[in-house]
Amino acid sequence: MPESTDVRIVHARVSFEPVAFRAPLKFGGRVVSQTDLINVTVDVEDHQGRRASGHGSMPVGNVWAWPSANVDADQAEKAMKHLAELTAVHINSVPDFGHPIELMYSVIHEYGELASVVQREFGLPEGMPKLAQLVANSPLDAALHDAYGRLHGKNSYNTLSAEYMNQDLSVYLGPDFAHEYLDRYTLRDPKTRMPLYHLVGALDPLGDADIESRINDGLPETLEEWIRADGLTHLKIKLNGEDLNWDVERVLAIDRITAAVQAERNVESWHYSCDFNEKCENVEYVLDFLGKIKEQSEAAFDRIQYIEQPTHRNLKQHPENKMHAAAKIKPVVIDESLVDLESLELAQELGYTGVAFKACKGQTETLLFAAAAIKRNLFLCVQDLTCPGASFLHSATLAARIPGVAAIEGNGRQYCPGPNAPWAKLYPGMFEITDGTVETGSLNGPGMGFSRG
């Protein structure tokens, strides 16, 4: 029987918000200096005629989600934004009542067809990748979950049980999940505080000597300054993947500077993650990298918590990229590769031992990925898409509600802090950082846990 708590979508609407970067961000051989936020509002209605509105926001992220030799970045951005609009039009015509997981799960299966419409309309030489489809529609997904929670006066993470959902997880994840619901794989209250992973991009200055011209906008500009200002203990290092000596020296240089600053602060423990953004040719590169780091600084090697997406995201096309040997040394996690359950299973076969969750892949899909990954005892982390404002808070709620995730990446404050300003007044503990942590316990309100009031 359908739940009395079910809702239908009354109306979804999309808008766009340009966001300038204060400093360029380089990763995977590409440089980003601006983006647009996709902002979505969804109105829902229950069987009794009660209504509520929810909101979602996410950067377009086309440079990360759709790197292509055939479609330039401007075309990809426009296509992804148009897909967000088309999906909103489509979902407005869906008459069904249901839980957000159920409603979105059916719509997700329409993404490919809607993306094909975009491809024809824009005359694109290739189809939109599944990852780009997920990113473009993630604000809609978040807005629906937000609206549902607000209508019921509950945090959305506390509407994931049999009391609210019509179907158990076996429908989505297979028979191993019979009689289980997402409340089994999420927390009823958010973690109170979580360490913040600070990004060190390939262009980012480490010390004063690396700066040619200062921005002078009042924010830190070097790694030294960021560590002192925010009390950082977790650093995510973007690496080249095609220049072993540069990658090794970059980590060692970061470690030298960090060690000096931490000694001043009397901090004895800190951590790194290393992100190659798919640029390594093979696992041997990763093994050589780890070996050289350990040889030259065992302390720096010990501080590396995990390796992120070292080789090509297309696992089917590159089955030779097996990670078993590297994963015996450090956890190796997929990021760009994770787009569905099949990719998660294939990654495990290829030796990956962890997953990086991202809010930009959609609230529904990410919650299902989390359940599958927890069942498999994989290493878990939550990564960022340079998310400012509401999109960062969304990402933080995921990290705070998924068991086993120990830290949250958040680099919008470094590169595009403008949209943070109104949210910082409401959630200062999420944006005014002094001890290297964010106050995720404050994200405990109705809906997705945060609101502009």
Write a structural description.
With 453 residues, this protein is α/β, with parallel strands linked by helices. It folds into two domains: 7-172, Enolase-like, N-terminal domain (Enolase-like, domain 1), CATH 3.30.390; 194-442, TIM Barrel (Alpha-Beta Barrel). The chain is built from 17 helices and twelve strands. The chain has helices spanning 62-65, 73-92, 100-108, 111-122, 130-152, 170-173, 223-230, 244-265, 283-296, 298-303, 324-327, 341-349, 363-375, 389-401, 412-415, 420-426, 428-431; strands at residues 7-27, 30-46, 51-59, 194-200, 234-238, 271-275, 304-308, 332-334, 354-357, 379-382, 408-409, 437-438. Strands 4, 5, 6, 7, 8, 9, 10, 11 and 12 form a nine-stranded mixed sheet that branches. It has a three-stranded antiparallel sheet with strand order 1-2-3. Helix 2 crosses helix 5 (130-152), helix 3 (100-108) runs antiparallel to helix 5 (130-152) and helix 8 (244-265) crosses helix 9 (283-296). It is globular. The model has no long low-confidence stretch (mean pLDDT 97).
Please provide a brief summary of the model:
With 453 residues, the chain is an alpha/beta fold. The chain contains 17 helices and twelve strands.
